[in-house]
Amino acid sequence: MSEKAKVATASLAGCFGCHMSLLDIDERLLDLIQVVEFDRMPLTDIKRVGRCDVGIIEGGVANAENVEVLRDFREHCKVLVAMGACAINGGIPAMRNQFELADCLTEAYVDGVGVDNPMIPNDPEIPLLLNKVHPIHEVVNVDYFLPGCPPAADAIWTFLNELLTGQPIALPYTQIHYD
Amino acid sequence: MSSSDLGNFISRVTDQYSRDPLQLINVLREVQDRYSHVPSEAMPQVAAALGVSLGRVQGVVEYYSFFHTSPRGQYEILLSDSITDHMLGKQPLMDYLCERLGVSVGETRADGRVSVGNASCTGMCDQGPAGLVNGYTVTRLNKERVDEMVELIDAGKPLSEWPAAYFQVEDNIRREDALLGTALEDGAALRAVLDRGEEAVLGEIVRSGLRGLGGAGFKTGIKWSLCRETHSTERYVVCNADEGEPGTFKDRVLLNRDADRVFEGMTLCARVIGAQRGYLYLRSEYRYMLEALETVLQRRRAAELLGENILGVPGFSFDIEIHLGAGAYMCGEESALIESLEGKRGVARVRPPFPVTHGFVNKPTVVNNVETFVCAALIAERGGDWFAAMGTEQSKGTKLLSVSGDCARPGIYEYPFGVTMRQVLADCGADNALAVQVAGAAGHCFPESEFDRRIAYEDVATGGSFMVFNRDRDMLDMARNFAHFFAYESCGFCTPCRVGTSLMKNLMDKVYAGHGTEADLEEMRNLGSVMQETSQCGLGSTAPNAILDTLDKFSDVYQRRLKSTAFEPAFDLDGALEEARQLTGREDSAAHL
Amino acid sequence: MSEQSSVRLDGQGTAAEAVSDEVARSEEASILLDGQKVPFSEGQTIMDAAMAAGTYIPHLCHNPEFKPHGSCRVCTVTVNGRTAAACTMPAQNDQVVETSTEALQTERRRLLQMLFVEGNHVCPACEASGNCQLQAVAYYVGMLSPHYNHFYPQRPVDASHPDFFIDFNRCILCELCVRASRDMDGKDLFAISGRGINSRLVVNSPSGRLGDTDFHTGDKAAHVCPVGAILFKHQGYDKPIGERLYDRQPISEVGDARAAEQGDQSNE
Fold first, then answer.
1. Which residues of C253-268 are buried (b: 16+ CB within 10 A; e: fewer)?
2. Number of domains in chain A
3. A neighbours by CB contacts (3+ pairs under 8 Å)
4. A160 and chain C: CB distance < 8 Å anywhere?
5. pLDDT per residue over B523-569, tens digit each?
6. Does the distance separating the beta carbons of A122 and B569 come in below 8 Å?
7. pTM, full prediction
8. pLDDT for B77-93, tens place per residue?
9. Looking at the domain covering C27-100, what would its CATH class be?
């Protein structure tokens, strides 16, 4: 590849664990930046995604802001990747789907132990919650899925290598897991 | 309802059914009738009295549409949700009914007086919009009749005092051929088998080429032979009168007009295979016929055509019991029907073994359709050659078609097999037909270019449903109606049908609402293919038929609703914020998507 | 559904053939499974024959200790070109059976995806993860995402029993616990209720709670759940994630979770 591929990442309703796993590729990061230029991602502090070759999304879609970021990524990235359990099926945040949103918010901000000044926050700065948490493929078209909670660093490495060199994605058995 | 009242009632009812676990559905129906639901306290009592597990009772209650776990109104009104009832104006009528009664669909009015809901096709497609009031069929509903019904309900008038015209069901026979047009004296088929012997009559059935007329088309002679050849002292004859395929109503007409010949055919079968007991599995929607059918059975017993020593022949004993269904399309499938007869959830069995060797209570059992039994009775008297002279190479005899939809003369049309759809359309006065859906929701859809195809097993097979759609219709209404139907009627046993029918329904709704894309259509095709290939029984494997057919043959009805975008979200994003907007009282720009 | 198309017709035809074929069966009867000759004996299904020969056909509701059930459909194979469930289809001489085609793997993947979106399968939060057959078969067929839209049903967990949890979110309706409790334990503690997508596992007690039954750790039903729906209390993550049955080797090599569990026990 003559020019570096532009790659952006974001964490929606996730725990940043997938991003930590990306960092776990350790010294291979140095190899990666030989062929990749990072756009928006936690390392660069770029706030809005620009035109990119690859967008990698961690986390599910839990609120209005998640939707906006995800749409922005889809619009700007040629290839969109769902990374990790939350992006793929909602993961742990989607466990709140077992309850009504009103019950979740009431428990957290009204009836919960130690709540002071009970009220459901309504500041316009705070992203409004969706009634359920969804995986990203229910909101935008997704090109690749990389499962795991988080995907192992080796799996991320294999995936990026194959993707960036135009090979078919073929993860070895030990690199595919959902937990 | 006091607990002692309930206890006494259950004890009386279970005694009446000899505390026989096979009678679970009958017992539950009595409880449902009396209390307008099956109270949760009733379930352990019924379980204990019949010696079955509570889970089994609960499983049965929650399986059948006509059992409820919460009270229904003193009057329960269900409107048929068949596409043909819709074409006759069901939805505006439903809206009007709900408005007049002050109740919404699926709910019981606060005063407990009335509840309103939907029912799958009630088999009155030739005289709809139709429905059920406390389980009894009402036909030809219109606004005036709804007004009258609302008054009767408000006045608390018992159903027995409602005008008889409401419950009038017409046969609407429009064309007779060999089956409807040939007289059969009561007992003639039985005398034939007694004169000529079982082997000879079975030979005639085989020679006739008669095939199952419920739609599956299995050779009746082979079925009877296989059952007869089993080593068993106990065999059963079951008549499948669970005509649940949307658009089918020919068995209704046969049972109303020709019950004697149906029972004669069953008795003939019993003589041939060596059975002492038979069941008529009557769909619950035809409950209105129950008393009349019981009367026919009584008359036949009195005439020595049923019971001990039939026609005075020692050892020729056979009797028939009528078993009412409880609302499950699935039970039209023979092994599911047998499960239901045994008081269980109507789920298809693993086959093989087949009912001919392991049927009712695991004994050899012949299950045939109503029409098949009538044909068998005629063949016993007239001979196989008489029958085989009609029809086509692989489809002998005649077929009753239930014609409904956009035509001047809906009703029953009997033709020799091989008739073209075009001929049927001409005869029923459908001069503006866009499409015909043959064999019901599970069947196939044919546009005008295929109207010259023939009704026969070698071409277009059908159990009888023939629904006509004219050029003003939107075929997507039909496909969507069927998608909802199958999601509702899937028994839930196997993965592709249980999940696939619901996924399909959701995709159809998305497309229908104008949120679909080309990718969604592709998804429906793929999903349909998996359902066809992997489902356990015919329900799942035929459920996608109408959708795949219309995608293929009426693609414009899908295309004109599609978004031009490549992808649309699975759900309404802004709508998904509504709850949070309400909880926070926010209406700022960030509170919307 | 009073009408049926070709499906049952063909099925019935098979019955007729089966009756006449019984006589023809001899000891060296065999099927051709993915091109390999696999012998079978009278009464065996295609799954039985494949298992005996050590050929893996993916399955979930099938457990060789129980009568074939045929609900998950994951063992769908082609038999003389037509699809059938290997677990319920009787083996017949000279059947040409295919199980490894790409088309079948795709269909199985779709079935797995249906099971995943139907319930709430949060693998990272499940004690059975790594020992779960649903997960392992999904790995085997190369499932990377649930693909479909999720139903997210709301199903409360039953933790009323002193020794067990039942997490209905993970139930795949294989009925193994229903069958084990009814047919082996003689307790009949479980049943299926509801219909269609609302089908659900219920506990056979007046309260509907497992704590009000005599369910016991020694029950067969306590040891047959292929997923994490019926879980033992007082133990968890004895073996860490990463070292579990399916973490290193595919199910096609190490077999079913419960069979392996019993193997472990017998080794101890």
1. eebbbbeeeeeeeeee
2. 1
3. B, C
4. no
5. 999 999 999 999 999 999 999 999 999 999 999 999 999 998 889 99
6. no
7. 0.95
8. 999 999 999 999 999 99
9. alpha beta
